[in-house]
C-alpha cells in the first residue's frame, strides 16, 4: 500500500509515522509546499519522498488530504478528476478536516464520489507543522465518518482498516450533524481560548507581572490560543452559522454569571457552578 499525504503537519505527519511503522503503508509519499517544512519532513522520516501534488495523487493507492479545510474544498474535486483521467484504478481519497458539510457538498455530484471517504480524526494539539508530528497521537480517540453511505463499501472498508491501525474508534454521522456537534465540543473551545488570551494580553500591557501569577488552570484554558490561524480561520468561517449559535449561547451563560456576581447573589453563583459540575458525569 502506497499512502500519499498532502500536508505533512501535525495530523498528516502523525498519520505517516504510525501507518508506516505499524505496517499499513509500505511507502509514504508526501506533498509539502513550504521548503523548510518539506526538508524537515524528509529529515524526520515522515515521508519516503516529497513529490508534486499530481505525482502524489497518481502514485498513491490512498490519498490523504490533510490541509486546512479552505484548501481541501478546492483540492478534493481535483483529486477525483485525476483519478478519472488515470482510469480510476481503485484509488481512494480521504480528508481529515474539522468541518464536513462544505467538503461533502463540494464532491457530492462527482462521478467518482464513491472513492472519497469523509473523515475527521478527533485528535490533535495546539502545535502545527512537521515538527508537531508524533507517534500514537490517535490511539483511543474517535474518528468521525461523515456521510459514509455515499462512499463505495470497498473504499469505506479500507479506510476503516486504516483508522483501525491507528487504534481509533469509528463513529458514523451525517455531515451537517457533525458540524453542529464539533461547534459545541471543539470550535467554541478555541474561540473561547483566543478571546481569553486577548483579554489577558490587554491587561498585561499595564501589569507586566500578570503572567508570573499564571497557574496550571490558566495554562490549560488558554493552551488552544496557540493554534494556527491558517487552520482555524477557514474552520470558523465554513462552520459560521453553528459557531455563531454556540457563541450566542456562551455569551448568555457568561451574562448569567456576570449578573449573579454583580448582584452578590451567592446562591445563584453556587447554582450555576453546580449545574456546570454535571459535566463530570460525562467527562471523566
Estimate the global geometry from the Cα principal axes.
globular
**Poorly predicted tracts of residues:** none
Task: State the helix count.
Answer: 11
Helix content: 40-55%
Question: What distance separates the N and C termini?
Answer: 38 Å
CATH class of the largest domain: Alpha Beta
Q: Please summarize the sheet with the most strands.
A: 8 strands, mixed
Write out the CATH superfamily name of the largest domain: NAD(P)-binding Rossmann-like Domain
Q: Got a strand count?
A: 8
Mean pLDDT across every amino acid position: 93
Structural class call reads alpha/beta
N-to-C order of helices and strands:
EHEHEHEHEHEEHEHHHHH
**CATH topology title of the largest domain:** Rossmann fold
Strand arrangement in the largest pleated sheet: 3-2-1-4-5-6-7-8
Number of domains: 2
Key descriptive features of the protein:
284 residues, alpha/beta, Rossmann fold, 6-phosphogluconate dehydrogenase C-terminal fold, 2 domains, 8-stranded mixed sheet, 11 helices, globular
Structure report:
It is a single chain. The model has no long low-confidence stretch (mean pLDDT 93). The chain is globular. The chain has an eight-stranded mixed sheet with strand order 3-2-1-4-5-6-7-8, sandwiched between helices. With 284 residues, the chain is α/β, with parallel strands linked by helices. α7 packs across α10 and α10 runs antiparallel to α11. It is built from eleven helices and eight strands. The protein folds into two domains: 172 residues, Rossmann fold; 104 residues, 6-phosphogluconate dehydrogenase C-terminal like domain (6-phosphogluconate dehydrogenase C-terminal fold).
Amino acid at each position: 500500500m502506497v499512502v500519499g499525504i498532502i500536508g505533512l503537519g501535525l495530523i498528516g505527519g502523525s498519520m505517516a509515522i504510525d501507518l508506516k511503522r505499524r505496517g499499513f503503508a509500505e511507502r509514504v509519499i508526501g506533498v509539502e509546499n513550504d521548503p523548510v517544512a518539506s526538508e524537515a519532513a524528509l529529515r524526520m522520516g515522515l515521508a519516503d519522498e516529497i513529490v508534486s501534488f499530481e505525482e502524489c495523487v497518481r502514485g498513491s493507492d490512498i490519498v490523504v488530504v490533510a490541509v486546512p479545510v479552505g484548501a481541501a474544498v478546492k483540492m478534493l474535486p481535483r483529486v477525483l478528476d485525476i483519478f478519472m483521467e488515470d482510469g480510476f484504478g481503485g484509488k481512494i481519497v480521504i480528508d481529515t478536516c474539522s468541518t464536513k458539510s462544505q467538503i461533502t457538498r463540494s464532491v457530492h455530484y462527482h462521478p467518482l464520489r464513491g472513492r472519497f471517504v469523509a473523515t475527521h480524526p478527533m485528535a490533535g494539539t495546539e502545535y502545527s507543522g512537521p515538527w508537531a508530528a508524533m507517534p500514537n497521537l490517535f490511539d483511543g480517540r474517535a474518528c468521525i465518518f461523515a456521510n459514509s453511505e455515499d462512499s463505495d463499501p470497498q473504499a469505506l472498508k479500507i479506510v476503516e482498516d486504516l483508522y483501525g491501525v491507528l487504534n481509533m474508534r469509528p463513529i458514523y454521522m451525517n455531515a451537517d450533524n457533525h458540524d453542529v456537534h464539533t461547534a459545541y465540543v471543539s470550535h467554541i473551545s478555541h474561540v473561547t481560548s483566543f478571546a481569553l488570551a486577548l483579554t489577558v494580553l490587554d491587561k498585561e500591557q499595564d501589569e507586566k507581572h500578570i503572567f508570573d501569577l499564571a497557574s496550571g488552570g490558566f495554562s490549560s484554558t488558554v493552551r488552544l490560543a496557540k493554534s494556527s490561524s491558517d487552520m482555524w480561520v477557514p474552520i470558523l468561517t465554513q462552520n459560521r452559522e453553528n459557531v455563531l449559535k454556540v457563541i450566542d449561547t456562551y455569551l448568555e451563560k457568561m451574562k448569567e454569571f456576570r449578573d449573579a456576581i454583580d448582584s452578590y447573589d451567592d446562591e445563584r453563583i453556587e447554582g450555576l457552578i453546580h449545574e456546570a459540575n454535571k459535566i463530570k458525569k460525562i467527562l471523566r
